[in-house]
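Action item from last week, closing it out:
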Amino acid sequence: MADKSQELPVIAITAAVGAIVLLGVLCFGIWKKDDELEKTEEHEQKNGSTKNNQSQQKKLKPITRQKKEPKMMFTHPWLASSLKGHSSNITGFDFSPNGKYLASCAEDRTILLWGVKDFSQKEHKYIRANVDLDHAMQVKFSPDSRAFITSLSMANSVRIFKFGKKDDGSLSIQASPEDFQQKHTADVINIGIASSGRFIMTCSKDTTIIVWDLKGEVLSTIDTHQVNNSYGAVSLCGRFVASSGFTPDVKVWEVCFDKSGAFREVTRAFELKGHSAGIYSFAFNGDSTRMVSVSKDGTWKFWNTNIEYAKGQDPYLLQTGKCKHTGRAIIAISHDSRTVTISTAFNISVYSTVTMECEQSIDNPHTEPVRGLDFSLNDKYIISCGDKQVHVFHNIVGYRATIVDAQEKKKKAKGGPQKDRLQKEINEARESLQRILGEAA
């Protein structure tokens, strides 16, 4: 019992000493944290005052804001105007036969109708037509300029739009209640409507051309046998349909009707042969007596098609020109056959059929590849589309070619009235060049 009583004080003393040591350690830790906290606060106060001083100094400095650089607008000495109204890339356009309107279609599901007389103005008004549940890839006017047809991207068919008048007398555009039936199994790449108003043509990527009546009934289906079609068109005279593709030729058919206007047949008319590679596209002049073609072989050709093909006569080659740029191309010829223009991706080249030389290269007119190229009905303008704008260029090469051609004809002219008419043509072309470029020709 004595030993146990002696051990109790020792244990108590040991416990007390341990408690005192533990308490000391805790107090030291708390003091150290307080000291570090004070140092941190002092450091933050110093930094804070420095930052405040710096911010005050910065506030004293004048604020300079960077100005946004304006977007570069395309300019060219030949540019007459740019038609702006679409919110997406334009896919095609066409002039009305009466010369009053230009219709453009785009991926924004709209078709805009522009007034040609406003081309020389700064502002360009338009009438909008909506393409419900789809968007148009091409647009072509009817011969009477009171309607137009479109090819639909997703439906891969044709829709007709007709003009009307609103209560206030202004022009309205309404779509027909039903589209043409979908007959093509491949994408439609081009459409056309005969100037006679007797038929509509659709051409697809495979080897198919379909000839329709105006009500959407199929008159004939053509197999072009060209591996695949790259282009198809109806001649401006309204007699022919034609196609080009993988093979190095252009095939032309005549769509025949009897005297009563009833469809009879589609018969092979003639072919353009002479290229060494596939043909990208082709074009007819105003009366189908001349044609042009552009090929993968890097050349374009100028043809005389004023022939009696029913008697077996073949077109003959007038000239061959070398393309300034290579790649997939679109070609167009003026109605008077004096000017040819070719687009390849981001470039437009303008040629004279008198010299067969490239007279002008218009580089990067659009921010997207050129998708449409043509001449106005009076040949005064060259029209292109590729992005959200339609560019309208003065046909300067056409004016110059007119002067050269008329001067040569004047030398050979025998009668006074003919010479006077040619001289008037020369004077008008010179006046136009002077007005547009300040150029004395």
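Closing note: The CA atoms of residues 426 and 435 lie 14 Å apart.
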